[in-house]
Amino acid sequence: MVCDTITYHPTLTKLINFLETNNGRDKLLRTLQYVTKLLAYYLLRTGSSVNHYYLVRRLQDLFTLSRKPLRALKPLKHLKALSVTVDNELGDGYTKLFESVKQASYSLYYGFDTVHWLKLLGLLRNRNGKLLVKVEQVCSFFWLVALVSGLLQNVRQLRVSYLRKQELLKELASDDDQNPLDKRGNLEKQKETLDTQNVQLYRAKRDLVIHALNSLVAINGLSQKRVNNGVAGGAGVITSILQLQDLWNATSTTESSVL
C-alpha cells in the first residue's frame, strides 16, 4: 500500500532519526537563523517595509534563542575532547596544540553562550558585572579563537596528508623489483592507505572552508563594521548547509528503538 511505502521508506526513517538528535535540530535551526539574518539584511538594504524587516528580525531572534538550550551542556563534550587530546602522545605536535586550543576555546564559547542564554531569559541582569554586558562579544571572541585554531589545524593536516600521499606514490613507483605476490599484497595496502589520505585531504579542505566562513560570522559578532550582516548571513547559510550534509550523511536509516 502507498501508506506503508511512505511509512517504511528509508528516507523518512532517516529524517526522523536526524530530527531526534540534538545536533540535527541545532543545525536545522542554525540554517533558519542565518537565512533570516541574510533576509533581514536584504530587506534593510532594499528599503522594504519596516514591518517585514522587524518580523524577520523577530524570527531570527527566536531561532537564535531556540538553539541556546540545545547547546547548554556542550562544554562537557569539548572538555572531554580536550582531555583526550592532551593525553594523546602519539599524534603530531602541532596538530595536538591546535586541537587543544580549539577544544578549550569551544568549551569557553559554549559556557559563555549558556550565560548569554540566561541573560536573554532575564535570569541574569547587567548589574551582576561588566562581563555580562558584553557576554555576546565574549562568546564571539572565543568562537573566533576556536575557528582560527581549527584553520591552522586544517592547514597542518593538509600538509601532513599531502606529504604522506607523496611518500605513498613514491613507494608505489618503486615496487617494480618485488616478488609478484608480495608486490600485490603491498600494492593493496598502499592503495587503501592512499584512499585514506585522499579522504583526509578532502575532509581537511572542507573543514578549512567551514572554519574560514564561520570566522566571518564570528568577526561579525565582534564588530559589524568589519563584516556586515549580509556577509555573515551568507557565510552562515553556506556553513549550515555543509554541516547539515555531514550530519545527514552520518544519520542511520535503521529504525531507532522507542523507550
Automatic annotation (TrEMBL):
Pfam families the record matches: PEX11
Protein's recorded name: Uncharacterized protein
Gene Ontology biological process terms, A to Z: medium-chain fatty acid transport; peroxisome fission; regulation of peroxisome size
Cellular component terms per the entry's GO annotation: endoplasmic reticulum; peroxisomal importomer complex; peroxisomal membrane
Keyword Transport: no
Species annotation: Ogataea polymorpha
Subcellular location: Peroxisome membrane
Keywords from the UniProt entry: Membrane, Peroxisome, Peroxisome biogenesis
Domain of life: Eukaryota
Coiled coil: none
